[in-house]
Specification:
It is a single chain. The chain is mainly β and about 400 residues long. It folds into 2 domains: about 45-225, Jelly Rolls (Sandwich); about 235-390, Jelly Rolls. Helices cover about 5% and strands about 40% of the residues. The protein has helices spanning about 20-35, 130; strands at about 45-50, 60, 65-70, 75, 90-100, 100-110, 115-120, 135-140, 170-180, 180-185, 190-195, 200-205, 215-225, 235-240, 240-245, 255, 275-280, 285-290, 295-305, 305-315, 325-330, 330, 335-340, 345-360, 360-370, 380, 385-390. The strands form 5 sheets. Strands 1, 3, 4, 6, 9, 10, 11 and 13 form an 8-stranded antiparallel sheet that branches. Strands 14, 16, 19, 21, 22, 23 and 25 form a 7-stranded mixed sheet that branches. Strands 2-5-12-7-8 form a 5-stranded antiparallel sheet. A hairpin with a 2-residue loop joins strand 3 and strand 4. Bound molecules: calcium ion (CA) (3 copies). One calcium ion (CA) binds near residues 243, 287 and 383.
């Protein structure tokens, strides 16, 4: 569903999950949430080079194609595998990290009759032109703008004018994202201003389209407008324990997505749509409840060393719960994890998921709610405890 227009109906099952006293507090908070939105979270803005001019550090080649660095530019050729099948991806170069709200500036040059594109907020699986968006790049100077011509959000929104320069010349692009809004300036023309119903967070990418196309990119800079930042203050160390209720700061679409605007639970954190429940049996006295398919939560972490980790998660569910997975910098590292019937919403039971491969360093873990079970929910989650796998590999 469209993540920006939350369902106003509160699922009845959620009312079973917390005491009546907390509901009154939630109602009061719900009003505050609706009026203040996510503006209360702090923002920072620093332009960062996405390309060091020397190598492809920070980028990940996907599905073949030939990528190289020449004369301070990223050069793509010998692309393969592209189609309009939303399930299949061709060759592209993906940013290692995911981004939400940003200003992305870069220059590109395309060869005669060449075809390329850039991706924004795309997933690492399926066709990135359809999980996020593709801004089209073609050698098509002088053609009428269409949803497939240069500058268009491919298949979605045509450019107001065709901004293309002749083949081989450098074109300058500025793409700005703000929640659902995507604005594109191309060679000093404002050509796209679109409200998207797709992902609000994902990878950036450069397309390597076919064996004829030769595309160059240079001067790639990104300004993150509202990056997710750790709560309460510093990245959660791994190995270590992450309270489920300690998802990042940054607000909706950046640090989390929740299907309804109100916090159905306890007023533990200000102005969050995430449903935090107070429960005396939980670590830190709180956990996450009212979990629904499509919701996600971001946690900034610092992994001590590359290796394999085991995960323990205290959960509660009345009837069999649903499934979720964990992504590390946007890559699925667990597959679906199922929450069992623990005997009731008030009964925590620790589930285990061994053998999770994590790379050393700072990164974002995203808990993605996949599907609801007979309980009508995914399940209540207290915390995530990571320990080194025993015996170590
Ligand atoms: Ca909510
Ligand atoms: Ca929720
Ligand atoms: Ca907790």
């Amino acid at each position: 569903m469209n993540p920006y227009f939350p369902c106003p109906l509160l699922p009845a099952i959620g009312l079973l999950e917390i005491p009546a006293a907390s509901l009154a507090a939630a109602a009061a908070l719900g009003l505050a949430v609706a009026t203040t939105g996510t503006a209360a979270e702090e923002t920072t803005a620093t332009a960062t080079p996405l390309f060091n001019g020397k190598d492809l550090d920070g980028w990940v080649p996907m599905h073949g194609g030939q990528w190289s660095v020449e004369d301070g530019t990223i050069l793509g050729r010998q692309g393969a595998g592209w189609s309009t099948d939303p399930a299949r991806s061709g060759s592209w170069l993906r940013s290692r990290k995911e981004y939400a709200d940003f200003v992305w500036e870069f220059e590109y040059a395309i060869n005669t009759r060449g075809n390329s594109g850039v991706f924004l907020r795309s997933a690492a699986t399926r066709n990135p032109a359809f999980t996020g968006h593709e801004m089209q790049i073609l050698d098509d100077l002088g053609r009428e703008p269409a949803v497939w011509s240069t500058g268009a959000l491919y298949d979605v929104a045509a450019a107001t004018v065709n901004p293309s320069k002749p083949a081989g010349e450098w074109n300058r692009v500025r793409i700005e994202t703000t929640g659902p809004r995507i604005q594109i300036r191309h060679n000093d023309h404002d050509i796209v201003d679109h409200l998207s119903n797709r992902r609000t967070r994902g990878f950036l990418g450069l397309q390597n389209h076919d064996e004829h196309a030769v595309v160059r990119f240079r001067n790639l800079h990104l300004t993150e407008k509202s990056p997710a930042t750790p709560f309460p203050a510093t990245p959660h160390p791994i190995p270590g324990t992450i309270e489920a209720e300690h998802f990042d700061r940054g607000g909706a679409g950046i640090a989390f997505h929740d299907v309804d605007e109100a916090n159905q639970g306890a007023p533990y954190r200000e102005a969050t749509q995430v449903d935090i429940e107070a429960r005396p049996d939980a670590s830190n006295g709180h956990g996450i409840g009212w979990t629904r398919a499509g919701e996600w939560l971001v946690y900034s972490v610092e992994v001590a060393e590359t290796g394999t980790y085991d995960l323990e998660i205290p959960v509660a569910s009345q009837k069999t719960g649903g499934t979720f997975r964990i992504e590390a910098d946007g890559i699925d590292v667990t597959g679906p994890i199922s929450i069992p019937d623990t005997g009731g919403w008030s009964v925590l039971q620790t589930i285990r998921h061994p053998g999770i491969r994590l790379e050393k360093g700072r990164q974002s873990l995203t808990v993605v709610m996949l599907s609801e079970g007979p309980s009508g929910s995914i399940g209540d989650i207290d915390l995530f405890r990571f320990s080194r796998s025993t015996p170590p590999e």
